[in-house]
Amino acid sequence: MQLGVCYYPEHWPESKWNSDARRMADMGIARVRIAEFAWSRIEPEPGRFDWDWLDRAVSTLAGHGLEIVIGTPTASPPKWLVDLHPDILPVTRDGSVMQFGSRRHYDISSPVYREHCVRIVEAMTRRYGDHPAVVAWQTDNEFGCHNTLPSYTQAALHRFRRWLAARYETIDTLNSAWGNVFWSMEYRRFDEIELPHRTPTDANPSHVLDFRRFQSDEVASFHALQAELIRRHAPGRDVLHNFMGFYAAFDHYVFARHGLDVAAWDSYPIPRTEVLPLPEADKHRWARTGHPDVSAFSHDLYRGVGNGRMWVMEQQAGPVNWAPFNPVPQPGMVRLWTWEAFAHGAELVSYFRWRQCPFAQEQMHSGLNTPDDELSPGGREVVRVGEELRTLGVSEDDLRCARASVALLFDYEADWVIETQRHGIDFDYQHVVFEWYSALRELGLDVDIVSARSDLRAYRLVVAPTLPILPDSVVEQIELGSNHWVFGPRTGSKSQTFAIVAQLPPGKLRTVLPSRVIEVESLRPSIRPMLRLGKVEGTGLRWREHVQPGAGVEVMARFDDGLPALLRRERVTYMTACFDRALLRAAIAQCARDAGIDVAALPEGLRLRRRGPLRFAVNYGDRSQGVPAPADAKFILGSSIVGPVDVAVWIEED
Ligand code: GAL
């Protein structure tokens, strides 16, 4: 459990570097990320490299015992490169070309840009690959940020046509897979196919889905180009990328197979809560803390993406600049977010950024230090965490997170399918998944967020909030295993090529849950069909299916108008609608208990989490809460009563 910081030596006079590095080391920071936007300083003119300043920055940091993470600077190509090759600029969905003057102004598919990336990454990795202080490499910065994916360029078009030809082989196969007879959309050759944008009404969803898959592959191959160079010239160093929270434009599980040692991600709990489609009351309630499940969700997802290895590369350390409203965090939150990240398995929590920058786009974004070099309130909290870590006295050896008893399936294609065909304006895949996750967390459960294609048999309970394209392996695992499964609506509804499944939804799931979805409806917010589940009364919302249950399927609950709401056959449960919060929690609690898992609703804002022998409680709420520790528990932080915006950690052997 280490601390880190993002540092931009090129932003500050060199006379400050030494004292910056000393103060970092003094406050317990172990790792510093540098250089990810520094291309114009590293290569000020084509082919002329200026390493001197970066050599000195690296040796200044290393001189204070700091370990260094170098970011490849490919998220911000310099002006000369854009002027030499204007066609590397990305093109938006509406066809306009993005211009130079901020960052991420490049097209991931551009062969010329890829060549230049290889050139700069090769030069950097050759220079610093075997430097003893350089312990890890980050590729690029936040792929897709600022809506730069998908990119609709000519280069993307050419590569997409090739991708399609490889996938379908003949144009007739593609025409029939996509259903192009509809509206005379048939093609005669692959080179007639366009990118799915600027069509008068919706483009064919099959076309859109394949384009999303293609774009996702493009991101992975772009990363792989860099990862291979890092492996070659910087052997033994960790390769990582800093992913974003709640961002699904490319398949991170596939990406992780292209050379990734650690899934790092950037944690901004307050602005994230602000921009998620959460109810206004929740945004207000958690405006200064972030929603209690927002960071945890991404921690649990990225721990899965990184196959157990997860870092927070950028942790919000004060107010930021990029949400519609940017409040100051409640005192104590920077510390709480840090401990929460460790609780969920983070090996490193690195703050964004060392010092607030008084110029350019992020001048309103705080850092650990004010622009005039005093520790900020967030910086002071980090000093405290540094001291706490020093006195913690636990061995790092057994701090791996054990497998949770619950797996939640997060699926990138599901996001693309639903975004392409929401059917109801408020059906947002990630929001729906988040509601399920939150329900599990409110019940005190640890959750692993994993791919639907992983081996799931060791989990006692597997939940899939929705999985429109159901992998065969899920049904096979249900049949072979002995665990419990819960599926939400729309599961199994679509084929690989985005058509309604031949036997009607829930498609392949019918093998284990014989039933037919005859009609579906999206519900305006004012239409809320009622139902009761035990003592809990609530409503369906957003989406409802009219299902005909087949042989052996028990209807566990019905809506007031008689339509089945909750179906079960043996170990498989199916929700025919989205449920409101209380109902969803009640339904999940019942399934968890049936799977042999203990659950108990936690007080508002309290969350628990286990890591190795450590048990963590974090309190996002504004009242003190007792934690469920045994009477003789050994507390290494806090006590059995955890105050508002506070943390407790105790040791509990299994
Ligand atoms: C991240 C980005 C950083 C910085 C930060 C501000 O998305 O990676 O470079 O812009 O946001 O919150």
Describe this structure in words.
The strands form five sheets. The protein has an eight-stranded parallel beta barrel with strand order 1-2-3-4-5-6-7-8, surrounded by six helices. A seven-stranded mixed beta sheet has the order 10-9-11-12-18-17-16. Strands 13, 14, 15 and 19 form a four-stranded antiparallel beta sheet that branches. It is built from 18 helices and 25 strands. It is globular. It is α/β, with parallel strands linked by helices. Helices cover 31% and strands 20% of the residues. The structure holds beta-D-galactopyranose.
Shape field:
globular
Ligand identities: beta-D-galactopyranose
User: Regions with pLDDT < 50 over 5+ consecutive residues?
Assistant: none
Major sheet: arrangement of strands: 1-2-3-4-5-6-7-8
Number of alpha- plus pi-helical segments: 18
CATH topology name of the domain at 406-594: Rossmann fold
Radius of gyration: 25 Å
Give me the secondary-structure category.
alpha/beta
Fraction of helical residues: 25-40%
Concise structural overview:
With 654 residues, the protein is of the alpha/beta class.
Name the descriptors.
single chain; 654 residues; alpha/beta; Rossmann fold; Immunoglobulin-like; eight-stranded parallel barrel; seven-stranded mixed β-sheet; 25 strands; binds beta-D-galactopyranose
Q: How is the topology of this model organized?
A:
Layout (H helix, E strand, L loop, with lengths): L1 E5 L10 H10 L2 E6 L4 H4 L9 H12 L3 E5 L7 H6 L26 H18 L5 E5 L15 H15 L2 H8 L26 H29 L4 E7 L7 H5 L5 E6 L1 H7 L4 H6 L8 H12 L4 E7 L16 H11 L2 E7 L24 H15 L14 E4 L2 H9 L8 H14 L4 E4 L10 E4 L7 H9 L3 E4 L27 E8 L7 E4 L2 E14 L4 E5 L5 E6 L2 E4 L1 E3 L1 H14 L11 E6 L2 E6 L5 E2 L7 E4 L3 E2 L3 E6 L3
Parallel strand pairs: 1-2, 1-8, 2-3, 3-4, 4-5, 5-6, 6-7, 7-8, 9-10, 9-11, 11-12, 12-18
Antiparallel strand pairs: 13-15, 14-15, 15-19, 16-17, 17-18, 20-21, 21-25, 22-24, 23-25
Helix pairs in contact: 1-3, 5-8, 6-8, 8-15, 13-14, 16-18
The structure holds beta-D-galactopyranose.
